[in-house]
Amino acid sequence: MRQILNHMNESALYNESDLAPFQKRIKELRQILQRDTAEGKHPQALIKLLERQVNKCDDTVKSLEESLSVLSVELIPIHEKLVTIRRKLVALAAKQGSHKAELKPLQEELRKIDSQRVDGKFLGPGGIVPASQALCSSLLEECFEIAQEVKANEESRNVASSLKPIHDRLSDLRSELEGLVLTHRWSLRETDLWNYSLSLQEIDKMRVDGKFLDSEGNRPAGQYVLLYLLRRCYGLIYRLLSSSEPVSEELMPIANKLSTVKKCLNEVLKYGGPFNPRDLYPYQLALHQIESRRKDGKFMAADGTVPEGQGIIMAHLNECHELIEMLKEAMDEGDFDDDDDDDEYEEEDDDETVQEERQFR
Fold it and tell me: Name one GO cellular component term (predicted).
């Protein structure tokens, strides 16, 4: 719990609904400790240690709450813009028909706002970092997510009949996982989510060269939305596991590397093109390097043991793979315009690509 709270504090990506489960869980933990103390189940030294840990979590949650209680004067214009954009996006999501023409300018506005951040922070006059970053940052990310949801919903109307069973299955899995996030966030383990992971892996294996094919070997319409749903499902599994299952110290370097790759891929997805398939190479290389560290499907410690956190790492890894496939599909569908010739590009010595490769090593 402390690990997640610290990450939320560092990233400034949270809102009141994100904090509510932590408040509830801390209250439950206090009640458990009080009951165990009254029954004399544990030594006093252990009880005091656990109470200190709970208090630290509680202090962090209160600090995060305070940052949401006041909106800095410097951030009021940005916050107002984001609220307006969010309102338009929600209205767009409720409308029937094609939204591409209306969605694009809203995405451009979001990108302009996002470009104002420096190292993930909105700055005030003189380069100061105003308080209440989380209010604007979380709202900005929420707007980007709604925009992706709008696009996916529009795409779902065009899913070919041959892919409809897969689409419906993924939609059901997503709904079930979202329900678990609300009801069982703190009590689930990797084994509890095994059936969900297995179902997603089975669907993943149906792809040929990253694409879902019909019985005749053709590539039907609806690829993007299926990849989007796969990614969302893996993301929900990661969220569920990260709330209840720790990542061992041995796996933290891998977890951190995956977080960096995912962050970069999300930025590419937000900003779009023009870009070339070769631009994805550093990210694919980074994921390949991580994959190559597995033995018999597991990430091993130096002493040959299997560290905790396998499920979290795999969910994170799979989500990164789906992000890459989404970007490829978007390029195939022409969502990212690219006037460069692929062959010429491949022959060029791209310094930026080299730098990106070094970033993930």
Answer: nucleus
